[in-house]
Amino acid sequence: MEKFNYYLISISSRDYLEKCIEYSMAGFTNSKNGFWAFIDIDEGDYVSFLYGARIKNLYRVKKKVAYKNARDLPPWNPIRFRSGQEYYFPFRLYLEPKLYLDESMVKPQMAYVAENLLLRGGYRKTHFQTDKLTLYNVSNMGEPAEAGIHKPIYHKGETFEPTIVFKKNMQKIPERYLFNELILQSILKKSLRKILPEILMRLGWNENAENFEILGEKALPEGFIDIFIKPKHPVGPGKYMLVEVKKDRANEKDLNQLLNYLLEFRGLPVAGILVAKTFSRKSVSRIKELHHNIIPVSYSLRVSLDKEYSYHELLEDITLKLNI
């Protein structure tokens, strides 16, 4: 399991949960958050459902599929609001059951999950990533799923690969989504490892980059860290890196926000990483004053504003560079 990530899919509807379990399938809506969840979770990753403060089952993602004309595709009905807004489920994950379990998150083994959910104030997002230790704990709970009992029913509808665009007038949901910070965060979470050894060297930390895991959004009393880098196997006080992501220009306000997050880890070895396309003069000046406590990282994508790109094309294309 070491190579793969573990996600909890947040569920607020019992009917939705029951159909997920019955069909060994997760579905995400055509919303911005639904698309984010679909691109963020990879085939081979592990997932559980989170409902009513309980963790339901452990699955491995076998296949990801986006369906055209999915408005009336079972098993979930479209969600309609009084405003006229409608969401349906074009994005599907076909799942292989690994364990049957129904565990309360109010356990010491679930501390990472409980803290995140408590500080989030509920099921605000479609999913969140938890750490390797939680996956290890969950994998030692419950009962093994019987092979072949739950076979996903694959739909025969026409499929497509959703793409990402950089001009608002090119967006056509669910086929094309406008590039945003959630998409950027997902890309960075999977690409920061390329420069992690260089970051550790800049910080003066004599650590092996392979000993760290790069996780998605983590909740703090001050707000949400976009990306959280922590030891995979913490022994005693660990070293942590908090990553704040800005799609365009990072300014002094963004730097102050990151510094407030760092205060939550006072007394521990901790550093901040500020990722942006460009940096304001004031933010650069402040970062220089802070010496090595903050690492500025610029990103670039070689894209044309008139073209569309797959998520994996952007993941391969992104370039990261330490500044100052």
Question: What's this, in brief?
Answer:
With 324 residues, the chain is of the alpha/beta class.
Please specify the SSE layout and strand pairing:
Elements: E1 6-10, H1 14-23, E2 25-28, H2 32-40, E3 46-51, E4 54-66, E5 79-80, E6 86-87, E7 91-104, H3 111-120, E8 127-130, H4 132-139, E9 143-144, E10 163-165, E11 176-178, H5 181-191, H6 196-203, E12 212-215, E13 218-220, E14 223-225, E15 227-231, E16 240-245, E17 249-250, H7 252-263, E18 270-276, E19 278-279, H8 281-289, E20 294-300, H9 311-317, E21 319-322
Parallel strand pairs: 1-3, 10-11, 16-18, 17-19, 18-20
Antiparallel strand pairs: 1-8, 2-7, 3-4, 4-7, 5-6, 7-9, 12-15, 13-14, 15-16, 20-21
Helix pairs in contact: 2-5, 7-8
Task: Describe the 3D structure.
The structure is a single chain. The chain is α/β, with parallel strands linked by helices and 324 residues long. The protein is globular. Helices cover 26% and strands 31% of the residues.
